[in-house]
Amino acid sequence: DSGVTQTPKHLITATGQRVTLRCSPRSGDLSVYWYQQSLDQGLQFLIQYYNGEERAKGNILERFSAQQFPDLHSELNLSSLELGDSALYFCASSVASGLGPNGYTFGSGTRLTVV
Amino acid sequence: EDQVTQSPEALRLQEGESSSLNCSYTVSGLRGLFWYRQDPGKGPEFLFTLYSAGEEKEKERLKATLTKKESFLHITAPKPEDSATYLCAVQGLRSGGYQKVTFGTGTKLQVIP
Fold first, then answer.
1. Chain A residue whose CA is closest to B96
2. pLDDT tens, B11-66?
């Protein structure tokens, strides 16, 4: 157990629907990162939050949004889902903003299947 | 734009057969190079951080090295439990308050008993 908790583990939904993925960072970590991993691509950075504030955006679609709450857990909202959104979505956390000497700690991911 | 290329895409080894995985990178000001291990259906697990050319890190059967253009992950006498996908990532210069991290697509290693 890495200490980063992601729920749900699996999600199957239809095109056009909206889903929410949840992440609880490792105790003491202030930064949360969201990544998307598809079969034909590596880990693609979506967005980062640090202590409740958005810190950086990557290749995140306008249909996607995220937030980090005062208790530091984070939610990634995916709307108007398309077949191509099917992927593994990972949350990672770190103490500070950016990769420290021990890297990020990743959760076990949420596998999203859009049918 | 920062780029990370890992080779080979897949590698099949007999147990005990040593080999190396390659990570070639181009980055604007390397702040760190990271190796991760990822098992199927799980999140990446941190292995090593390397900061400067010439640096080496070891952990059990794994040894990571770094030059100015590439990093190698050497696997000595691998065992079946070493089977996994190995990911390389680089952290570049800070841009707009964010130290961009770019991941490679990984090398899928299979060790046959």
1. A56
2. 999 999 999 999 999 988 888 999 999 998 899 999 999 999 999 999 999 999 99
Scanning the structure block, which residue is given the tokens 């679609």?
A: A61
The pLDDT of residue A3 is above 60 = yes
Over 70: is that where the pLDDT of B95 sits? no
Supply the Cα-derived Rg of chain A in whole angstroms: 13
* All residues at 6 or more sequence positions from A39 whose CB lies less than 8 Å from its CB, including other chains: none
CB A111 within 8 A of CB A88: yes
Which residue of B38, B99, B101 to mutate against A (max A Cβ within 10 Å)?
B101
Q: In what order do the strands lie in the sheet with A64-68?
A: A5-7, A19-24, A74-78, A64-68
Contact in structure between A75 and A6 (CB atoms under 8 Å)? no
Check CB contact under 8 Å for B97 and A102: no
Question: Angle B103-B108-B111 (CA atoms, 0-180°, nearest 5)?
Answer: 145
- B76 alpha-carbon distance from chain centroid: 15
The CA–CA distances, whole Å, from A47 to A33, B39, B47 equal 6, 24, 23
Contact A42 B32 (CB under 8 A): no
pLDDT tens digit string along B54-88? 999 999 999 999 999 999 999 999 999 999 999 99
Q: Are A92 and A32 in contact (CB under 8 A)?
A: yes
Q: How far apart are CA B68 and CA A78, in angstroms?
A: 39
